[in-house]
Amino acid sequence: MTSAPTVRPISPEQHLAFVRAQPWTSFLQTPAWAKVKPEWRAESLGWFDGSDLVGAGLVLHRNLPRLQRSLAYLPEGPVIDWSAPDLGAWLAPMTKHLKQHGAFAVRMGPPVVTRRWSAATVKEGIADPDVRRLDDVAPTHREPVGARVVSQLHELGWRLQGSEGGGFAAGQPRYNFQVPLVAADGTRRTEEDVLAGMNQQWRRNIKKADKAGVVVTRGGLEDLKAFHDLYAHTAERDHFTPRPLAYFRTMAEAMAAEEPDRFVLWLAHHEGDLVAATIAVRVGTHDWYSYGASSTENRDVRGSNAVQWAMLRDAITAGATVYDLRGITDTLDPDDPHAGLIQFKVGTGGEAVEHAGEWDLPLRPLLYKAFQAAMKRRG
Fold first, then answer.
1. Which of 61, 64, 185, 215 could form a disulfide with 41 if both were Cys (CB 3.0 to 4.6 A apart)?
2. Distance between alpha carbon 277 and the CA centroid of its chain, in Å?
3. What is the β-pairing status of strands 351-355 and 175-180?
4. Based on the domain organization, do 26 and 131 belong to the same domain?
5. 185-221 residue pLDDT tens
6. Tell me: the pLDDT tens digits for 85-130?
7. CATH code of residue 74
């Protein structure tokens, strides 16, 4: 790039064309995501080098009550060159544009990884009584680009959010669990490679589901009600607040309008009963396990393992480079209520990854301070 880029609004069509030209982009940075979040005002921004579109970002605006000021939020974005030696040249025109259009602060989540822990390293940490968090264990790999991004953001005045919350305190999880589908030498991993990388319990459960006659199929929009009924049951059992059925209908329709495989519903049946169901999302070469549900009565047929294996095989067939099981906390304490989540995911043989986290830049400090105080009061 010959000079600092300029930033201006682009159409959803321009934005989608840019996304399609990338190896992958977070699904939270696709134009469709604006339709999934109608309570936010959305705009697509483009970064231009002359007339060439070289970056894009979905900005979600949440207005302050009774004020024409907003928090401008770019979840897992923007999609720019995060390896650039001068990030300020990329971020300054964005923050200038947003301030001119009423933003009192900008929040973003750079889609870069800072550290990785192999499944073996995580399992050793779980087994060690002196280890409580991922931070207590040396990472398998440190990512230099991620480290430079964090350093530059500090220097530019951005503030890391939610670092004390173990990964779930901010809007998007800082820690994820992923299964790489490309080996370190660049070769693609086969189904046999991935299965061999799982722990014995996962392999046993996949075989048990097959022997029990669990059948995994793709569902359609007409199956969303069945998914949601099971998801609501899961929410009651596991003590979380479920999203309404309308949310998933909007998500499915908006994403499918962009690409036919952007949103896929997977269903696992046993003797006619729905025992597990999941939602998968695909953008380019990145596949996500986004939502899941399972029955309590039929857990012994291992429908959850069966549906995950079907999704993994589909990702391999589609040429994905990563199968992403999304968020975990950084806890390795077996007494922590979140420990079961990482123990389930670590069985896939993948790796825990730490992202750069979510960062705020106050543009109007007094309003930002009042906003922060209000968020603390809400708990």
1. 61
2. 19
3. antiparallel
4. no
5. 999 999 999 999 999 999 999 999 999 999 999 999 9
6. 999 999 999 999 999 999 999 999 999 999 999 999 999 999 999 9
7. 3.40.630.30
Q: Are residues 207 and 88 in the same domain?
A: no
Q: Among the residues of 6-143, which ranges form H helices?
A: 12-20, 32-36, 87-100, 119-127
Residues 362 and 300 in one domain: no
Judge whether 46 and 53 are in contact, CB under 8 Å. yes
pTM above 0.90, yes or no: yes
Average pLDDT of the residues of the chain: 94
The answer to the question of residue 302 being in a domain is: yes
**260 within some domain:** yes
pLDDT of residue 123: 93
Place of tokens 């010959």: 2
To which residue do tokens 């999203």 refer?
A: 243
Where are the alpha helices (H) located in the chain, listed in sequence order?
12-20, 32-36, 87-100, 119-127, 144-155, 191-197, 200-212, 224-238, 245-258, 303-317, 339-346, 365-378
In this structure, what token pair is assigned to residue 344?
């389930």
Are 120 and 209 found together in one domain? yes
C-alpha–C-alpha distance, residues 336 and 69, integer Å:
39
Residue 285, domain member (yes or no): yes
Distance from C-alpha of 188 to C-alpha of 181, rounded to nearest angstrom = 6
* 288 in the same domain as 182: yes
Beta-bridge partner residues of 264: 280
Rounded to 10 degrees, the C-alpha dihedral 354/117/86/25 comes to -60
121-173 pLDDT, tens per residue? 999 999 999 999 999 999 999 999 999 999 999 999 999 997 544 443 448 99
Residue 149 located in a structural domain? no
Residues 230 and 95 in one domain: no
What is the C-alpha separation between 79 and 57, in angstroms, rounded? 6
Cα 34 from Cα 255, distance rounded (Å): 10
Q: State whether residue 176 is helix, strand or coil.
A: strand
Contact 365, 216 (CB under 8 A): no
Task: Place 379 in a pLDDT band, splitting at 50, 70 and 90.
Answer: low
* 227 and 92 both lie in a single domain: no
